[in-house]
């Protein structure tokens, strides 16, 4: 069967998978139902499957939720009917799946990564929002697939379906990484440190959207990955009666508020782009109580690791100073980290030639700038450090709203394009291997 007839046959499943993931969005390290659904589909295809602590190095996970949040997610998984044995393996936030296909014939080891987590975004209920119109909107309050990871997981299952069907015509080893906790740059490093990328020759990743493009446009490589550090800060002061004994209090709320304002005043750097954002600030218990507790979450980013380090160093200085100013304590913790990476330019020619086999790829763009952070960089770098090559593609689609927006959505035809891009590269890599052996 040719590529396009296969994609046409697969398309209803791609849509069904995407919509099922969209309806039950789970944030990082709580993707129990999502992992279960992926595992069930992969089990039908004959892959060697790994879950739980087999997938991630437990101590390398960053930003793991509190026990209470994990417990709620595990209870939801039980109610959904997740297999108890599988849920036990995933306990305490050990989500994600690795699927390995050994063809039994010599060839390259190719790894593909698909992120699976959602965001803490409340989905729009506007009647024009397609998930509302088509009845597949989020069923979990305050959580949403607002960055296309539902589509990435569906593409991953489509790629797995192709590999299973074509196993007898393929050579080498294929490892599919269904990664938890990409949002906040928390999950990739834990998979890397487990060793999944250590003997990989070729690494492939990709993302739906990013820029408002047409379906069928694919960027073969990506640049401008921003290094990033995600951090949480807890300010601890002294509570007091705001009327009778205000002088006895130490106001954690004011310390956090002053900190947030001054963090956004960090000077830009002459060597390149930098970013800082305070995303949340929670404090206080009542209007007549001097607040003794405040929490702040934020992130830094930089065009290079050095620029990110500059912003993060300044942020630490300001946090300490704000705490001292109000006589409170501040405790800071790093809960996520991403770095920079450079895609190998050889994938431009590979994808351009591979695209000739399918109508699902209409235009190959050599390079597109991400202008954001992605912890896939840990995977690309590990493969390249060991002599392999890697790239991160962008799959074009019109975007009715930007990423992380309550009305985010995309054209589902892009799911076919995503699968086609992986298949095209598989074909070209195999062809090149055959030429090298002649």
Give an overview in words.
There is one protein chain. This protein has 438 residues and is α/β, with parallel strands linked by helices. Helices cover 36% and strands 24% of the residues. The longest helix is centred in the C-terminal third of the chain and has 24 residues, at 414-437. 51% of the residues are buried. It starts with a helix and ends with a helix. The strands form three sheets. It has an eight-stranded mixed sheet, with helices on both faces. It has two domains: 3-222 and 341-437, 3-Layer(aba) Sandwich (Aminopeptidase), CATH 3.40.630; 227-338, Alpha-Beta Plaits (2-Layer Sandwich), CATH 3.30.70.360.
Tag the structure with descriptive keywords.
438 residues, alpha/beta, Aminopeptidase, Alpha-Beta Plaits, 2 domains, eight-stranded mixed beta sheet, four-stranded antiparallel beta sheet, 12 helices, 14 strands, 24% strand
Please give the radius of gyration in angstroms. Answer: 23 Å
Global shape: globular
Distance between the termini: 26 Å
Strand content: 15-25%
The overall number of domains is 2
Provide the CATH top-level class of the largest domain: Alpha Beta
Q: Overall mean pLDDT score? A: 96
Return the CATH architecture of the largest domain.
3-Layer(aba) Sandwich
Instruction: Classify the oligomer.
Output: single chain
Q: What class do helices, strands and sheet pairing give? A: alpha/beta
Biggest sheet, open or closed, and with what strands and sense?
8 strands, mixed
Q: Please mark out the parts with pLDDT under 50 across 5 or more consecutive residues, or reply none.
A: none
How many β-strand runs?
A: 14
Q: Which strand order spans the largest sheet, edge to edge or round the barrel?
A: 1-2-4-3-5-14-6-13
């Amino acid at each position: 069967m040719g590529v396009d007839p296969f994609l046409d046959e697969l398309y209803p499943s791609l849509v069904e998978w995407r919509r099922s993931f969209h309806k039950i969005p789970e944030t990082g390290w709580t993707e129990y139902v999502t992992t279960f659904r992926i595992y069930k589909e992969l089990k039908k295809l004959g892959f060697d499957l790994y879950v739980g602590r087999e997938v991630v190095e437990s101590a390398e996970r960053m930003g793991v939720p509190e026990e209470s949040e994990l417990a709620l997610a595990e209870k939801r998984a039980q109610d959904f009917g997740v297999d108890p044995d599988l849920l036990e393996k995933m306990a305490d936030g050990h989500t994600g799946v690795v699927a390995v296909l050994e063809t039994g014939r010599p060839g390259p080891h190719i790894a593909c990564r698909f992120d699976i987590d959602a965001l803490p975004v409340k989905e729009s209920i506007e009647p024009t929002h397609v998930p509302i119109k088509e009845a597949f909107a989020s069923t979990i309050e305050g959580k949403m697939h607002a960055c296309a990871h539902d589509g990435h997981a569906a593409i991953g299952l489509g790629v797995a379906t192709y590999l299973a069907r074509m196993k007898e015509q393929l050579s080498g080893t294929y490892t599919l990484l269904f990664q938890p906790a990409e949002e906040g740059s928390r999950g990739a490093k834990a998979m890397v440190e487990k060793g999944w990328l250590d003997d990989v020759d070729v690494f492939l990743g990709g993302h739906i959207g990013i820029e408002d493009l047409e379906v069928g446009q694919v960027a073969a490589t990506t640049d401008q990955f921003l290094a990033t550090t995600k951090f949480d800060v807890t300010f601890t002061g002294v509570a007091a009666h705001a009327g009778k004994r205000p002088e006895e209090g130490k106001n954690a709320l004011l310390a956090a508020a002053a900190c947030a304002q001054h963090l956004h005043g960090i000077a830009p750097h002459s060597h390149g782009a930098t970013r800082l954002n305070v995303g949340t600030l929670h404090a206080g218990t009542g209007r007549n109580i001097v607040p003794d507790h405040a929490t702040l979450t934020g992130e830094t980013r930089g065009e290079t690791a050095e620029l990110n380090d500059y912003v993060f160093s300044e942020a630490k200085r300001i946090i300490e100073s704000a705490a001292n100013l109000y006589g409170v304590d501040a405790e800071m913790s790093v809960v996520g980290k991403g770095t920079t990476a450079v895609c190998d330019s050889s994938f431009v020619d590979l994808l351009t030639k591979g695209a000739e086999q399918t109508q699902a790829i209409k235009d190959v763009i050599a390079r597109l700038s991400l202008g954001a952070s992605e912890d896939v960089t840990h995977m690309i770098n590990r493969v390249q450090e060991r002599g392999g090559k890697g790239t991160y593609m962008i799959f074009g689609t019109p975007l009715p709203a930007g990423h992380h927006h309550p009305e985010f959505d995309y054209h589902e035809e892009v799911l076919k394009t995503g699968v086609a891009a992986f298949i095209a590269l598989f074909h070209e890599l195999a062809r090149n291997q055959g030429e090298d052996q002649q």
